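PT: before anyone asks, these are the final sequences, not the draft ones from last week. 741 residues across everything. Please model them as a single complex and drop the result in this thread when it's through.
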Amino acid sequence: MNHTLSVLVEDKPGVLARVSSLLARRGFNIHSLAVGPSHEEGMSKMTIVVEAPELEQVKKQLHKLINVVKITELDPALAIEREIVMVRVNAPAGRRSDVLEIAAIFKAVAVDVGHNTICFLVAGEPGKINDLLELVRPYGIVDLVKSGRVALARDVKGKQPRLRAVN
Amino acid sequence: MSTISGAQALIRALEHEGVEVAFGVPGGAILPAYDPLLDSPIRHVLARHEQGAGHMAEGYAWATGRVGVCIATSGPGATNLVTPLADALMDSVPIVAITGQVPTSAVGNDAFQEAYTTGITMPATKHNYFVTNVAEIPDVVHEAFHIAGTGRPGPVLIDLPKDILNATTSWRAPTELALPGYKPTVEGHPLRVREAIEMIARAERPVLYVGGGIVKANAAEELRRLAELTATPVTTTLMARGVFPDSHPLALGMPGMHGTYTAITAIQKCDVLVSIGVRFDDRVTGNPAHFAPHAKVVHIDVDPAEIGKVRVPEVPIVGDAGAVMRQMIEAWGERETPDHSAWIDVIRAWQRDHPLRYEQTPDGPLKPQFVVEELHRITGGDAILVAGVGQHQMWTSQFWGFEDPRRWINSGGLGTMGFAVPAAIGAKAGKPDELVYAIDGDGCFQMTSQELITAATEHIPVKIGVMNNGVHGMVTQWQRLFYQRRFSGSQLGNAVDYVRLAEAMGCVGLKAETPDEVAPAIEKSLAIDDRPVVVEFVVDPEEMVFPMVPAGGSNDEVILGPSQTVISPASDLP
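LR: through. Structure below.
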């Protein structure tokens, strides 16, 4: 089962290696890992999707790393999760409009055009990304890159009425 | 502010931490650090192998409770430290390893004696550092000692490129620690402490299962008070022998694979298992699904990751063993000490019916257990005992009567053969006025005996008893029991004359081959104090360690003797 962790780490050389080495050593499978500077000075934020039956040991072992400051388990119902995909699809003359129609439904943007292909960029919930890829697959996917999931907790506080997530 | 080199800053930083001795082997990359070391009050012990230096630092840390220090050069010097680092990590031993590294401009280029030390040691240390700014040295050293010696202690490595050691800086005393991700918990949650006390008060068959964490917390006194206050019998793991006196009426002995029948069975039959400073290691639990099947578990440990890792406790408490036990004693308050005489009676019956046993006949082969008991008798048990790994280690842990903490040093978690000789040297360097006696196997001894050259040269007069049975004993035992006596690769042979080997290394060599030669040899070894002494005891290779619960087996099925009688104590309780 996949779980999403948001991990705040000190931005020091080797921290990424420490985290991935620890997860490998403890036998936890990393589905995806995205990391970049956070808004706090000297800190980076990692979004890790871990495949594990349950998360207690994963979190506790990660906490043992000196450079790990805070770990938040993100419940999908209480988090905003997004992935970015760039996909180059076969789109020769005569088929181009089909491909562009599918892209429009998913609000994918053409970021590069070749004589026979179009490269789309799309950001969205992991489910939406998969649906788009499913629909363009019959036309032929020439190349593809996924960014790895990034996620933030939603701003839900106590007894206030829960607002709907924006899509 | 006067200018100093990174190397001078390093040595001064070590002095600032109160380091008294460092065990090391120099080399090209670390050479700049060795120069100011010569003028420093820090004593340098030149080891013969970096692995030896690492185990010496461990032995020093075990004996003194202080952070041990080892120094090595880059490349092979650093990689030779991996085993002691991994050992220290498994057994939570506080050591700081200082390694040289090639200059920063050469890193990543396969330079001479270059190794990716920080990468290689990342999973073998609690934390490590690669220093790229000479001005950081005082803070890095201060942080390293803090991390090594606090919370769950462990090894920390500092990798120092040569150009950094040669760069100039000025001395700036370490500033306040900035470790937002490291805040070990000391005090246990008061509500959990109360829950634990209530559970203990209601227990009918409680057991205290205590381990290395009690040693690290220096909490033997609190343990004794807690045990006596609550009339709870105590079992001490291999890492904790001596934190509770073996002579105490509540002492059960060691649990686990080669524990006493009494300790193993008391845990299996208990209704409350108060676990302090332990990690439910597989050598203790056997198959965890069958471990302490009737018990509600209280688990107290400073490392939150250990709680629930193997067994989910009913009452989890994160905190320092000593602090939490003091809280517990206070929470117990004026309660009366419970009457557990029915439980104790059952325990006494087990002790009476299934004691540890061996048979030494006057003209039969020399039994290793007899050697251990003789050594204990003649020294009055007043020694710091060090062991290697294997049968001899188990017999020593079983048959020596331990009374005090930090008088027993061995490699438990990693089980590193060859640990004994260097660890004994480290212990003696830290406790020069104490008798330090190692009991080693011949297989282990052959791995690290050259460190006796260090002991002789540095005037560290340790005593090593070598249980020579000509084989890798524990492996032979398993091959006898589970591989139809097919002794593959386990027979060392008898090529070595240990007496001459010892003397060739500047030590005194003695030998005992029969039971009546044992006491005189021991007494002679005790009378020599100006040189290390090696006593070879020629012991029976057929002797096996019992009781035994085979790996992965259930602690309800204990093999008591060589006829492989399995005892299942189902009917023992009223």
